Amino acid sequence: MNKIRVVGFFVLFSGLIGVSTGSLSAVQKEGIVGTGTKIDTLEKEFEGSFPEAAPKHGEIREFELEASESQWGIVPPYQTEVWSYNGKVPGPIFRVNLGDTVRVRFTNKLPQSTTIHWHGVRVPNAMDGVPGVTQPAIESGESFVYEFTPKDAGTFWFHPHVNSAEQVERGLHGVLIVEDPDEPQYSQDLEMVLDDWRLDRNWKIDDRFVTRHDLAHDGRWGQYRTVNGAVKPVFDVKAGERIRIRLINVANGRVFSPQFRGLSPQVIAVDGMLAGKPFPLRRFFLASGNRIDLDVVIPTTSAGNTFEIVDSFSRKTVPIAYLKVASGEPLETPLFDPPRAAHFPEWREAINAPISHEYELDAKRGGPYGITWTMDDEAWPKVKPQELVFGRFNRLRFTNKSSRLHPMHLHGQFFKVIARKGKPVNENFWRDTILVGPKETVDIALIPLDKGLWANHCHILEHAEAGMMSTFSVK
Ligand code: C2O
Ligand code: CU
To answer: How large is the average pLDDT for residues 135-157?
Structure first.
């Protein structure tokens, strides 16, 4: 990313921020440590947002999953050697109902060890797939059974947590969709896995991973953008259809800003969780790890048309996929209110709560890759673990001292962004990954309901590999 893009980023960002209300109040300057009452109010407000325990009324759903070397036509007719789950890129899509227990019998046929992390799923800590933190790495030739009952319905994904800058880049990622049968039925439910690839002149994956260049920038950005493993695929739709589209960014570093030319999608979920209130998709920065679910109506008058889906994050807007509307009679558009979270806290007072920890994000010279990315001046595994109290309101701050992007991801938790650059913002949804811009400060608030030792890292996988990872415990 060059200078001009960085400037562009700021401009775009301020447009996205939304409501910001004036200067700091007296209360904030004092802090409200010790007063107790306001924190209690915030905790009360949270009640009913998402459950502490999984509903257990479903079936056991068993899946086989194998990671191996295979071939995939990213740019047909050329074949590219990839690493994949079940021979496909993206890997399989596991669809289960809320209440079901997911049992995945995983076998590692890769030439190196691996694990699986269920991104965004509030799993029991031992199933989180972080080597040295929640489980030993699964050696080449070995198997492991992952089993958990998702607590939330939504769009999730899974990927290795060992040498992930290489393993995810080579094609290891899959989708987990947890459906809530109580949500309205769309005409179609589509997933679009967004990725990019850096290929050499022979359509081979450029096998220089975690380079100094990638580290000095926003990770590895490839020249081929793909949707579901294909360059500019065409999706067949019908006029009048109302479609749920689940966008998942599995790229190592690239940020997408998806836009649907000629259509007016509503964002109904972010990072898996239904929003408190659906909102129109204008500029939404889908950083590595992020998901959004869209409610898209194909106009009844559009038979025979083709709609373009573009990525407008960079200066140059690029088409990434098409929706091709069949000719012929339109279908009747299903009428229902888009699904929304049963309860979502406003947390207007959150901005006055004390900060439990401020993470400083920065880089320094040296380390195994020549550049080390740090949290609180240390690189993984030396970063001091933080402690969050189970069931209590916590406010954390990410302060980005660098000029690069850092999509920070907390395992096992959902949080709400409450401020950028010290100014209150009101996002009507939870996240598990938040893009922190150059020199930006972002405050998040959460009430952890999942105990254990969890990872907290930059989802630009090169940055994480070069140190930008830490843990926090919830007790
Ligand atoms: Cu998708 Cu630890 O991350
Ligand atoms: Cu980063």
So the answer is: 98
pLDDT surpassing 60 at residue 97: yes
CB atoms closer than 10 angstroms to residue 172: 25
Indicate if ligand 1 lies below 6 Å from the C-beta of 458.
no
What does the pLDDT read at residue 56?
80
Closest residue by CA, ligand 1 atom 3: 119
Q: What is the pLDDT of residues 258-282, one digit of tens each?
A: 999 999 999 999 999 999 999 999 9
Looking up tokens 């995939």 gives: 72
If you average pLDDT over residues 4-13, what whole number do you get?
37
Residue ranges near ligand 2 (ion) with Cβ within 5 Å: 406, 458, 460, 463
Q: Is 289 in the pocket of ligand 1 (CB under 6 A)?
A: yes
**pLDDT value at residue 36:** 55
How many Å apart are CA 157 and CA 142, to the nearest integer? 22
Q: Is 173 in the pocket of ligand 1 (CB under 6 A)?
A: no
Residue 215 CA, chain-centre distance (Å), reads 20
Instruction: Give the pLDDT band (50/70/90) at residue 347.
Output: very high
Tens of pLDDT, residue by residue over 56-76, are: 889 999 999 999 999 999 999
- Find the range with the poorest average confidence among 27-31, 48-52, 67-71, 170-174: 27-31
- Whether ligand 1 lies within 6 angstroms of the CB of 119 is answered as yes
